[in-house]
Structures are given as C-alpha cells and as structure tokens.
Amino acid sequence: MASSSIFSPKVKSNYIFSSPSTKSLVSLLPSRPIQYKRDFPIAKVASVTYQPINDEYLKEEFSGHGVTFEGIGESCVAKMETENGSTASLMLPSGLITSYKAHMWHEGTVELLHTSVTEADDEEDAIIQGGISLPLTFASDGGQEPWSPTAWSLHNVRGSPTNTITIEMISNDSEGKIRLKHIVTLERDMLSSELVVSNSKSSPLQMFGGVMSHLTVSSPDAIYALGLEGSTFFDKKPIDTEFVITPPRYGDQSQPGYGQVYGKMTLQALVETLGALNQIDADVAQSRSSNSEIEEDGEEGEEDDSYKQLTDEMCRIYTCAPRVFTFLDRGKRNSVTVGRAGFEELYLMSPGSVHEFYSKYAYILVGQTAMLKPITIAPGDEWNGGLYIHNPNL
C-alpha cells in the first residue's frame, strides 16, 4: 500500500525506523582530510519513542500566521498556507516535511514532494518515508559517541499568509553542546529548508549528511535535469536512512526495464511479471540490509549532458555542480528549480523507469549534502545552509 497523502487513515503515531549501523563511524573519521572514506555514516536509531505532542497547546500558542495544527495519534501535523493557495505540511516531532503543494498558472495546485505511507508488518503501525528530511550525524574528538537529531520541538512561528510563513524547530544533543535550528519557510512561489548549527563544544564539530528531498514525478522516464553539463561526480550506492525511499532491487542488473518489458509482452504478461518481481522485493531488501560492507568509490566522471534524461537508475554525488538547476517533467508539463546554500555537494538519485508510473518509486531524490567530506564547525562558531524548491510555473 502506498499513498501520497500524509492524512491516510492508516497512519498511526509510531514510526518504524531502519537506520544503518554506525559501528564503523568512528573509524571513518580521519586524522587528515585527504583520508576521508567516501561514504555516509549515520548514527543508528534503533528505536525512537516520541513524547506525545499536545496539539491543543500548539493551537493556543502558535496558531495564526497562516499555520494550523492537527493531532494524529501522539504526533501533530503543522500546515502552512499562503493566500494564493500554496501549502506545506510537516510532522512533529519527527520534523519530516511531507507535502508542498504549489500554486500553478492554471489556478490549481500541484504536489511537488513525494511521500509514501505503508503498513508495517504488525498492521498497527505505519512507515512514513519521502518528503524532505535531515539525515545528519555529528561527531567530535574525545571519543564521544556520534549524535543524530531524532526529535524536533516547535520553537517559533512567524509571518503571514499574504507574504511569508516561517516555522522554526530546534533539536539539541543530550549535553546541550550542539544546537540545531530547522527553519522551514513557505512563500508564494518557494519552499525552503534551512539548517543552523551552533557548536558550543571546546573542539571542532564534524557534520555528515544533509537535506534530502523527494520530488514527485510522473516517471523518471519523463524527467530531465537541466544545467549539469560539466559537473564532476562520483557514482555511489544510495544512502539508507529511515525516511529515504530506495527500491529494494536497486542495482539488480537482471531486472528488465519497464519500457523493454512493455515492448515485448502482452499487458497480462507484464502485470504478472511486475507482480512476481514485487513479491521478491522484501527478500532482496532484507539481504541488502544484512550486507554492511562499505562500497568503495566509483570512478570520478564528468557530466556531458546539459539535458540529462533520468530514465536509468543512478545515484551520484556531484562535487562540482551549479548551486541552482532545473528539473523538467514532460509528463506533468511543469518544472521545478532546486537550489542550495552552505553545502558543497549535490546528491542525485533516480530509481529508474523500471517501476510503474505514479507508483511509490515515481520520484527523484535530490540532496544538498556533506557526504564525501564532512563540514567542520569550529568551537563557538555557527554554520547555516539548506535547500530551496522554487516553483516557476505561476
């Protein structure tokens, strides 16, 4: 079961996380920058128990400014809406941005983010993935355990529906030495996710990870990335975090392309084939998660296409790429401009066109990241960065 709406009646307040192990995280931290392993460590969250959210308190304290609150079990959804009809929704305390519906030239709205809600094995919980998330890990000297933010508290709401609406969330480590602010801003034609990191430790702080956004598409077959020609990149395996969606058969060279199957089979045979492939997804996913070996870098390459079609599955980290570029969806006849600040790397993953149109895997994953080389924040310093999604279709 998959759904693009966070308000699915199946949604419960619990989340099932499957974060990769951090057993090797400390060993990945180098004594010299040149020795960095080119892989992304994420602090393990074996089980997250959120404190119940008092949505009535949030309504009394923060309502207005174009923001409303709705309780869902022990969680809460905050919805932002501007006068022209653009909306954005985020969940507390997870901090996951689940929806961005942008106002279009035809006076309607179009969902630009891709969110999946699926039933867990016990059929009482739900797994929520996609949207915009912050898979981050912080590490410092002194043998201290790495830390990742798992829960966010609402700190402030400001602005108005006529112009700009801002929600500010905070998350601190247990010692209070690392302070994170996540600032989500909705404008008439843009959604931004900004991260502010303050280091009160006596030693430098290293930040891995970034801001990951799932952009919904008709099919990767119809998506073109404009403006990446000349950018340098490394091919990588997809990252594995609790909110990121990755097809369980990613990298399986034996699976046929969707277009290839359709051209050679009857419709009934195609349906049967896709059904059989889907049945083995769980087994393949389990096998993949049990393999904890770190993959070495692919060879460095240079993008040679200024109008790159994302038909084939791919996962790349661009180390030198424009800070602003555009995705064109010929299936939906719209475009999205994505920009970044603070981060030097661009993460781009396409699940490929093997999957059914408008399915759980009809998305493009774009990240503004520090995955090949962490960002270092000096003692007493503050760093900020993030991404924005601009809607040019007004």
Automatic annotation (TrEMBL):
Source organism superkingdom: Eukaryota
GO-annotated cellular components: cytoplasm
SUPFAM superfamilies per the UniProt record, alphabetical: Galactose mutarotase-like
GO molecular function: carbohydrate binding; glucose-6-phosphate 1-epimerase activity
Residue spans of biased composition, Acidic residues class: 293-305
Chain residue ranges for the region called Disordered: 285-307
An example Gene Ontology biological process: carbohydrate metabolic process
InterPro entries: Gal_mutarotase_sf_dom, GH-type_carb-bd
PANTHER family, alphabetized: APOSPORY-ASSOCIATED PROTEIN C-RELATED (PTHR11122), PROTEIN NDH-DEPENDENT CYCLIC ELECTRON FLOW 5 (PTHR11122:SF15)
Protein name: NDH-dependent cyclic electron flow 5
Organism: Geranium maderense
